[in-house]
Amino acid sequence: MIKNQLEERFPLVAVEGELSNVRPSSTGHLYFTLKDDEAALSAVLFRGRARGVPFTPEDGQQVIAYGGISVYAKRGAYQLIVERMELAGVGRILAMLEERKRRLDAEGLFAADRKRRLPLLPQRIAVVTSPTGAALRDIMQVLGRRNAGIDVVVCPTPVQGDQAAARIARMIGIAGTHRLGDVVIVARGGGSLEDLLPFSDEAVVRAVADCPIPVISAVGHEVDWALSDFAADLRAPTPSAAAEVVATSRDELAARVHELGRSIVTRFVERYRHGKLLLRQFAPVELHRSYWMLAQPTLQEFDRLRDELADAMDERLAAQRHRLELASRELTSVSPFQVVRRGYAIARDAAGNIVTDASHLHPRDAISVELRRGGVDASVEHVHTGGKHHEEL
Predict the structure, then answer these.
(1) What are phi and psi of 387, to 5 degrees?
(2) Of 307, 310, 372, which Cα lies nearest the Cα of 341?
(3) Which pairing describes strands 124-129 and 151-156: parallel, antiparallel, or unpaired?
């Protein structure tokens, strides 16, 4: 009866609260508690519905859960059967801004190559902001202190409320179309996330990205942010910081010029010294030293090769001399003149042929006899063969 009564009375409700004790089950279901300062309500998000939740539920998130009340009889507890769930309050705004940021970034509105450099010395600045707000006062104070001669064109617009976004986008367009300044500063003071929403409006972001003049986004305090920061050419943490950026003081310029002058002189001196060092290597003494440093290894190698060649030739000559000596000894040993030196003689016939057989001679044949020293001419008187006289003359 309790189960029927609750399910019939509360078939569909929306409950806003903080997620607590979020615990997913192994089956894919998600159990958690919705609570506020005064009450708590158990809830379950079944697996099929959990896939449709556009964020990851975590403890501490503020959400709105839609579903019906049911009773879990085994435990005697009632709970919310969640059909769908969305972020509430700040969480919902952040989710919306994150989705818008991804979409605009995909279009290229936040690309780094779209960013332009700011002019060094702008003569005029267009400020899109509330004419009665603290942001304008801060900007004017900084500009007056830093560089009193700069012109300021105020493009008045509300910076909060339902109509603020359209007015801000329109003023940015006017400032760019009519070239009201060398730089456009889009500014407002601090506030809550809801207060800064106009500067995250899609129309404002597109106006900043399309502006033909460099744009500085200076929305809120340093911890605050808006989508205009990503589309602008420069994001300043505060309106005062934006004024500091565009209004370089005379003292800073003088110091910068002085520093650049010192840098030029230093670089010139360095180059001059470097040039002297380069020229020094072409002095006669340095050239002579460099020549010998280059030539010395080659000359040493030449000397080494020459000595090796001389040694090789000496070795070759010695070897040839030794061979010649051996050949000479061998030739001498077989020379007939060696026999002559021992007291023998060489007989030659009239034709000059050496006579080795007595039977080749006849009595009265002319012969010549070579002795160890000199020789004699003679004629054959007797021819002996076999140890006997062949014939007597």
Answers:
(1) 85, 0
(2) 372
(3) parallel
* Residue 269 resides in a domain: no
Domain span at residue 219?
123-248
pLDDT 10s digits, 53-101: 888 898 888 888 999 999 888 888 899 999 998 887 766 677 788 889 9
**pLDDT attached to residue 389:** 44
The CA distance from 298 to 74, in Å, is 103
- Cα 45 from Cα 53, distance rounded (Å): 10
The number of distinct structural domains making up the chain is 3
Is residue 134 domain-shared with residue 57, that is, in the same domain?
no
- Please give the radius of gyration of the chain, using alpha carbons only, rounded to the nearest integer: 60
CA 11 to chain centre: 62
Is 332 a domain residue?
no
Q: Which residue numbers in the chain have pLDDT < 70?
A: 90-92, 147-148, 249-251, 335-343, 372, 386-393
Q: Which of 248, 271, 297 is the last residue of a domain?
A: 248
The answer to whether 231 and 202 are in contact (CB under 8 A) is: no
pLDDT at 336: 67
**CATH number of the domain encompassing residue 137:** 3.40.50.2300
* pTM of the predicted structure, to 2 decimals: 0.51
Tokens 């769908």: give the residue. Answer: 84
The three-class DSSP label of residue 14 is: strand
Alpha-carbon span 231 to 210, nearest angstrom: 9
Round to whole Å and give the CA distance between 194 and 200. Answer: 10
In this structure, what token pair is assigned to residue 30?
């998600």
**Beta carbons of 224 and 185 less than 8 angstroms apart:** no
Question: CA 43, 47, 50 angle in degrees (round to 5)?
Answer: 70
Q: 68: left (phi > 0), else alpha (psi -120 to 50), else beta?
A: beta
Strand 215-219 versus strand 151-156 pairing type: unpaired
Give kind and range of the element (H or E) at residue 367: strand 366-370
Q: Is 298 domain-assigned?
A: no
Enumerate the β-bridge partners of residue 64.
16, 86
Q: What does the alpha-carbon distance between residue 363 and residue 391 come to, in Å, rounded to a whole number?
A: 7
Unique residue bearing structure tokens 């004017």: 140
